[in-house]
Specification:
Length: about 350
């Protein structure tokens, strides 16, 4: 997201001061971003969940993350502390077909790489590009009580490529006396890259509830996602790539509480968020493992215009799942508890 685009959108949405009567929106849930207003409260779009609203919007989110994994087993080389940094760019789009039916979609690109020699050896770098989309159906809308309930469903696809030196180094260690020419002729150079792909299906219920008139708002959701992953690493023994498949099922329970200080004369809003994720995953050649993580987030946003959401948000992942590596005998072994922090610059225009 560049500064020119941000300045342009801000300029389009800043107008001369108006009287209180002129600023009061009409009793209509359409136009000027009012599709996400309910019970007098202007709801924000959360970071850790989708919303209950059927809206037309376009948005950009730019994020950076830091991911640390202690004591990751990497076979005969022992263990290593992994530090990764990543960047993600996401384009959000919503199309309101009727007051109760809409389309939603996301397109994103993600890049991360190891920060240290040991991190780059074990994890290298990774690039993923893809997106998802689907339908949102409004099931209940009560403006008198400030309540809305919606159903969302859809699917996604992404593909990418992993770059890692670990498998190449391991193969060289397992092939004493190998020369560079042997490696290249034996196609061991293909060990450096691993093509990946992923399909997913998701669905859930989403609630919005106004609290305390125009100042407070609460959002919550319960959703499930099924993911099918594929990796195609190069097998130096077979001399060709092999297909490795894994699946995971995830259940997300999320809540967000927002406070808009615009009615008090300050065009700022705060939103605190919480996400609990449970489920399981079946890794390649491993027994099924359970998922159990929590995330907390906090965002600060400009709330001077109902059709503009602009702000900064940060998220910390608590109790992140341990990474699976290999011990010196080649058996599966877990790392220590990772830590993950990321921040986002968020810009969304709603109409």
């Amino acid at each position: 997201m560049n500064l020119t685009a941000i300045a342009l959108l801000l300029a389009l949405n800043v107008a001369p001061a108006e009287s209180a009567a002129a600023r009061e929106p009409p009793a209509c849930e359409c136009g000027q971003g009012r599709s996400h207003q309910l019970g007098g409260h202007n709801f924000l779009f959360p970071m850790l969940q989708q919303s209950a609203f059927v809206s037309s919007y376009v948005g950009l989110r730019s994020g950076a993350a830091v991911y640390d994994v202690p004591d990751l087993p990497i076979g005969r080389l022992g263990t290593v502390d992994v530090s990764l940094t990543g960047y993600q760019q996401t384009l959000d789009l919503g199309v309101r077909l009727t007051r109760w039916l809409g389309l939603w979609g996301q397109a994103r690109g993600t890049l991360y790489a190891g920060l240290t020699v040991g991190s780059f050896l074990s994890d290298g770098a990774n690039f993923q590009a893809g997106g998802d989309g689907g339908l949102v159906v409004r099931l209940l809308h009560l403006d008198s009580s400030g309540t809305q309930l919606s159903l969302r469903g859809g699917g996604g696809y992404q593909q990418g490529r992993e770059l890692s030196l670990f498998t190449l180094v391991t193969s060289i260690l397992d092939t004493p006396g190998a020369t560079l020419e042997d490696i290249l002729r034996g196609r061991l150079g293909e060990l450096v890259t691993v093509p990946t792909s992923e399909y997913s299906a998701n669905g859930g219920l989403f609630l919005a509830q106004a609290l305390g008139g125009s100042v407070m708002g609460f959002q919550a959701s319960a959703s499930a996602t099924r993911i099918w992953r594929s990796r195609r690493p190069f097998d130096s023994v077979l001399g060709d790539r092999v297909d490795q498949y894994s699946t995971s099922t995830r259940v997300d329970l999320a809540a967000a509480l927002s406070a808009d200080f615009k009615p008090l004369g300050v065009p700022l809003a705060l939103m605190g968020e919480y996400l609990f994720t449970a489920g399981y995953q079946s890794e390649v050649a491993l027994a099924r493992t359970n998922l159990n993580t929590s995330s907390v987030g906090l965002g600060l946003y400009y709330s001077g215009r109902p059709n503009l959401q602009f702000g900064l948000g940060g998220v910390a992942v608590l109790h992140a799942e341990s990474r699976i590596g290999r011990d010196s005998d080649g058996n599966p072994a877990k790392s220590g508890r990772p830590t993950l922090y990321y921040g986002q610059l968020i810009l969304r225009y709603i109409w």
